[in-house]
Specification:
alpha+beta, two-stranded antiparallel sheet, 5 helices
Length: 236
């Protein structure tokens, strides 16, 4: 038996199922309307050039002196690491090599990985940083949204149409030069062309892209057409 104090109904009452359904519908509509209001508020912050929340390596949120409003500002200590990552990528270092170098020097990463006692850099983190246009002074808001999976408490990210994106040029937030940015873009496109597998929609490249062996994943079998990949590197 459940007695709802604020709603004023008792589950022993025969009208309780109807009342629960009505209250559930009203609560659902309230949550949807609340989400719209929050989104409108965030859009207003974005149009004024204020911080809309979240963290990004290389930046810090500083107060503007107006209530709780904040602006993004470049964190020079982290910005130096960002420039180094882009320079290594432009020079031809793989994502795995960059992550290993930063971990060997014990440079603090953006945040700790789940289940790890100590925070470490990982290739996926490096990949996302190389794609973030904020480092070149281009801020994009409203690019994606989160949708709740029915029957669970999980949320998944879904991209919005490009027509709904709010794009603003923020030269004061530029960390990486335009030349270095384009150099990294060219390098990533070349690696994808050489090592990208047919039908891949994204994510990390195959292991052959960071293999220490020159022809690993490049040579093809003359019989079946499959890739010849060095697994152990030991002579048989």
């Amino acid at each position: 038996r459940v007695v709802a104090v604020s709603q004023g109904f008792d589950t022993q009452n025969e009208q309780a199922p109807v009342l629960m359904a009505v209250h559930g519908l009203v609560d659902s509509l309230y949550v949807r309307e609340l989400a719209k209001r929050v989104h409108r508020g965030l859009e207003g912050l974005a149009l004024r050039g204020l911080h809309t929340g979240g963290r990004c390596y290389g930046y810090e949120a500083v107060s503007t002196g107006e209530a709780t409003s904040k602006r993004l500002a470049v964190c020079e200590e982290e910005a130096a690491v960002v420039r180094r990552i882009f320079a290594m990528a432009a020079a031809g270092d793989s994502l795995k090599t960059i992550a290993k170098s930063l971990n060997a020097e014990r440079i603090l990463p953006p945040r700790a990985r789940a289940g790890r006692e100590r925070a470490t850099w990982c290739p996926t983190c490096i990949r996302e940083m190389l794609r973030r246009e904020l480092y070149v002074g281009r801020q994009i808001w409203n690019r994606s949204r989160f949708v709740k999976v029915p029957g669970t408490n999980k949320r998944v990210q879904r991209m919005r149409p490009p027509s709904e994106w709010q794009i603003a040029e923020r030269p004061e937030l530029r960390i990486v030069s335009g030349e270095l940015w384009e150099s990294v873009r060219t390098r990533l496109a070349l690696v994808k062309q050489l090592y990208g597998e047919a039908g891949r929609k994204g994510g990390l490249f195959s292991r052959s892209a960071s293999s220490r062996y020159l022809f690993s994943g490049v040579l093809k079998c003359g019989v079946c057409g499959g890739n010849l990949v060095v697994v152990s590197g030991r002579a048989q």
